[in-house]
Hints:
- The chain has 299 residues and is α/β, with parallel strands linked by helices.
- Helices cover 38% and strands 13% of the residues.
- The protein contains twelve helices and ten strands.
- An eight-stranded parallel barrel has the order 1-2-3-6-7-8-9-10, surrounded by six helices. A two-stranded antiparallel ribbon has the order 4-5.
- Helix 9 (238-250) packs parallel to helix 11 and helix 11 runs antiparallel to helix 12.
- It is globular and about 50 Å long.
- Ribulose-5-phosphate (5RP) is lined by residues 61, 63-64, 67, 92, 179, 231-233, 257-261.
Amino acid sequence: MPDEQTTTPGGDTGESKAFSPDIPFETPGFFLRGSASLDWGMKNRLSRIFNPKSGRTVMLAFDHGYIMGPTTGLERIDLNIVPLCDHVDVLMCTRGILRSCVPPSCTKPVALRVSAGATILKDLSYEHVGVDIEDAVRLNAAAMAVQVYVGGEHEHDTLENLTKTIDAGNRVGIPTLGVTAVGREMVRDARYLGLSCRIIAELGAHYIKTYYCEKDFEQVTSACPVPIVIAGGKKLPELDALKMCYNAVQQGAAGVDMGRNIFQADNPVAMVKAVCAVVHELTPPADAYQMYQDMCHQA
Length: 299
Ligand code: 5RP
């Protein structure tokens, strides 16, 4: 066990670490990192989430309302989000929005947000699992998403939420997406994100959403034995958001789970197409931005 006296919050005891980012992670028998030993149903759902050709995914996150209410761009899901659904690989939302706004004829896989419990008016980390596994099955969820606050006041409870969701999902073949939520007191650096992602993977999450960090992000992806997708975070200028996507996939991310940088863009359909070009075809950000501008002018 590490000695608490000499170990930093990142679990770093001072000796150099061998992340070996240049050596690809072997994925024998299945295209997705760390998923070769899973059952058929799990693999099939993961193959709907991640494109088997590129090995990556573009998830559209629009679950923000469960903590933020009708935030900018999500005032009318029927008008602002439904037209984007055809252009992405996966939809990430709550069951309330899925049932009330997303047409059941939409065949895109759904990553169902199953944790909840606090809002932006309270301590966000105080979450519980709010959806039972039968309802996830009824909704034909391709994955369940649970937020974890490593280092937060309610770390223990959120890790228990994660574990319970993974166990329930394992019984029926639905993978769990572990979301690294970063409390206000935490720094979004490679050490913290690497610690958080690895803990979530060790507990059995099938893939992980985290944030991109400018420095040493490849250490976060290298030390995580399951795929990582990045959240977009607050709205950036479109070119900067595309650069972030590009850098993340070049440094080992298996795609994005992006919300505000898509639905708050000047032209969300053009933005989602540009993000897909970067993530699946590794289009350089300047070219993808040119595509974005051309589509804006044609609109
Ligand atoms: C909101 C979430 C979002 O799904 C996540 O943060 C991705 O969205 P964005 O790209 O806007 O950060 O967990 O609760």
